[in-house]
Amino acid sequence: MRNYPIKLAFTDDSIFQQNMIQLLIERDTVFDLFFICGDGLDLIKRLEFEDELPEVCIIDFHMPNMGGVAAASEISARFPSIKLFGYTATTDFCEIKEFKRNGGVHVFPKTNPTSMLEKINSWTYNDDLCQV
Asked: Please, where are the H alpha helices in the chain?
């Protein structure tokens, strides 16, 4: 069981989504928002230079430069301790399956970000993200 915030990074090219997640997390003591990125390439560059890595990265699938599916593959290979969660409007089963094959733990729809954060918190609190 945890008694400290979950270190989280969020990646989405939508300023609206970035602001919404930031507001939700600021009102909650469960998460510590390390940083927000606009695409997968930016996320990987940030991870390379951080002294401390986030435990969780929430990644949109469709972004310029590098989308979440491709980013998941590289992040899983280079930063295997980070748990990756997809956050997308896609219903393309093949794309979701590829994200999971590339190291993604779970994929959440963009319809309910509050529920997504609650589920990540629940899994982390109960299982320390070992089994999701």
From this structure: 15-26, 40-49, 68-78, 93-101, 113-127
Structure tokens at 124: 């982390």
CA dist., res. 35 & res. 26, Å (int): 12
Share of the chain above pLDDT 70, in %: 92
Residue 68's SS3 state is helix
2: left (phi over 0), alpha (psi -120 to 50) or beta: beta
Distances (CA, A) of 95 to 44, 60, 69: 20, 12, 7
Kindly tell me if the per-residue pLDDT of 47 is higher than 80.
Answer: yes
| Domain tally, the chain | 1
Instruction: State the Cα–Cα distance between residues 42 and 28, nearest whole angstrom.
Output: 26
Domain membership flag for residue 132:
no
CATH number of the domain bearing residue 83: 3.40.50.2300
Look up residue 128 and give its two tokens: 């320390």
Q: Give the residue numbers spanning the domain of 58.
A: 6-127
